[in-house]
Design goal:
Length: 59
């Protein structure tokens, strides 16, 4: 018999896992342990997010 996990519990577990991964990434980044190409990608994505936010506010 298969046990089903409630949707809210599954979402909470996924968010917790994502938060842990982000914390590890942030710690590695702060310590300078990210490869240069990954650091560049992070900066690029951050720039994209900053420029996308004014459009969201207007919508």
């Amino acid at each position: 018999m298969t046990t089903l996990i409630p949707r809210t519990e599954a979402i909470a577990a996924a968010r917790a896992a994502l938060d842990r991964a982000r914390a590890r990434r942030d710690a590695d980044r702060a310590a300078g342990r990210l490869p240069l190409d990954v650091e560049r990608l992070c900066r690029h994505l951050e720039r994209q997010q900053r420029t996308a936010r004014p459009d969201r506010a207007a919508a």
